[in-house]
Design goal:
The chain is of the alpha/beta class. The protein has one domain: HAD superfamily/HAD-like (Rossmann fold, 3-Layer(aba) Sandwich). A two-stranded parallel sheet has the order 1-2. It contains seven helices and four strands, in the order H-H-H-E-H-E-H-H-E-H-E. It is globular and about 50 Å long. 11% of the residues are buried.
């Protein structure tokens, strides 16, 4: 999506070099992983799951692909808490597009759950907060 926004003709890219570039980027990402800032994240996620709630990931993946995020979550032993993942690079759609929020709704086990009972948490006022609330979800905006 970024290359498209930069008007790069993807057909002209050397796919082998492009894949090699991404593999190196992924290696660096996994070597210098983000720091999980919540010290008790496992206890917190256990508490959520014990309440019968689900934890899902909906992420715009501009620089890091969904497959890389899954590797990170496995390394941090957080994947066990995630009921489903939706990454923009995998479905070719990104927040705030309502189609990506519909994908969340489609993946819920409880299809009768009212939309306002789905809480989307994010850090982008337009993509996360407005996108979610326009679709009918509740939303919480994280502030930096």
């Amino acid at each position: 999506m970024i290359l498209g926004a930069l008007n790069v003709d993807i057909k002209l890219l050397n796919k082998e070099k492009f894949n090699e570039f991404y593999e190196k980027s992924e290696e660096l990402f996994l070597e210098y992983k983000p720091v999980v800032i919540f010290e008790n994240i496992h206890d917190f996620f256990d508490e959520i799951k014990n309440q019968g709630k689900t934890i899902n990931i909906l992420s715009n993946t501009g620089f890091i692909k969904g497959k890389t995020m899954r590797k990170f979550l496995i390394h941090e032993n957080l994947d066990q808490y995630i009921d489903f993942h939706i990454y923009s690079d995998e479905i070719n759609c990104s927040k705030p597009n309502p189609l990506i929020f519909q994908e969340v709704k489609n993946n819920l086990k409880n299809q009768d759950l009212p939309l306002h009972q789905i809480l989307h948490i994010g850090d982008n006022p337009v993509a996360d907060y407005k996108g979610a609330t326009d679709f009918g979800f509740s939303a919480h905006l994280l502030k930096h």
